[in-house]
Specification:
140 residues; mainly alpha; 6 helices; membrane; Membrane protein YqaA with SNARE-associated domain; DedA_domain
Length: 140
């Protein structure tokens, strides 16, 4: 059950929903759960959640004039300009709490190949969870 909660929390945290997976990861580390499995499951869930954002950006951009669309035109424009300026390597920063979700959405809009997206986003998110887990293990 612990691993499912980690996966769901990490997946939700990577989407446009307001989730924070660090708390679930820290709590799971206080149980008998394996830190390696926690890292792997959190990394996988968070990366797959980012793929949802990529898919939304890739296939729903033509709805950008609708009220329910998650980003305003000026936000999209700024995100695209930033992405064009710094390139796909910015996807290594998709783990950031502010702007990370927008980056993954913009990557879909900009039609970054899915394999490259998963590689860069997965690497950045996996490193982040490694730091979180190591920090929690050191402190507690």
């Amino acid at each position: 059950m612990t691993y499912w909660l980690i996966f769901i929390s990490a997946f939700g945290a990577a989407t446009l929903l307001p989730f924070y997976s660090e708390f679930a990861v820290a709590a799971a580390l206080q149980t008998e759960a394996s830190p390696l499995w926690i890292w792997a499951i959190a990394s996988l869930g968070n990366t797959l959640g980012a793929v949802v954002n990529w898919l939304l950006g890739r296939y729903l951009i033509h709805f950008q004039d609708r009220r329910w669309f998650p980003f305003k035109p000026n936000q999209l424009g700024r995100g695209q300009a930033w992405f064009n300026r710094y390139g796909v390597w910015t996807l290594l920063l998709a783990w950031l709490p502010i702007g990370g979700d927008v980056l993954t959405f913009i990557a879909g809009v900009m039609r970054v190949p899915l394999w490259l997206f998963v590689l860069l986003v997965g690497l950045g998110k996996s490193l982040r969870y490694a730091v979180v887990i190591l920090t929690v293990l050191q402190v507690f």
